[in-house]
Amino acid sequence: WLFRTEPLKAPEKHLEIIEKLYYRQVIQRQIRLDTMSVGFERPPLTADCNLHYQTPKNREMAQFYRQSKVFLALSRHEGFSLTILEAMISGCIVIASNADGNMEFCEDQKNCVLIPGVDSDDYNSDDVVTNIINALEREGYKQMRQNAIKTAKQFSLKREGKELVKAFDSKKYG
Hints:
6 helices; 3-stranded parallel β-sheet; 6 strands; about 45% helix; alpha/beta; about 170 residues
């Protein structure tokens, strides 16, 4: 389990989800729930393992992604989320808010599980927990992971740089 702790990433909502998931999965089913967080502040968790890194090196981040089954991205706002693409290319099941930037490449139930934004009236933490459990338990989650990897491979820094230059050169930004 991997998540970010910056304020716009809604860390308090991540904690709420993890606590509920901990109860529903660990206590009731007696499985292990490990968490890794990245960001400025260490979150207070009761999960079995709470590893926190303020500024991990790229190699460490790649290892974290590979070790995680789930990447939770409940951002209040998101531009174009490279962290979600990093999680996808690493084979994580991505549970993401329907923030504008995520909608560029996130397809609900195809390459991720989309949920309502944490500040919307439709957001419900119990529904998020159920979506996470369902994503991990359903037979199609392996296909979702494969689709996510395929999606992430469509984006490269070289391609993104070209697209950015193209956008700035276009008349709509001039």
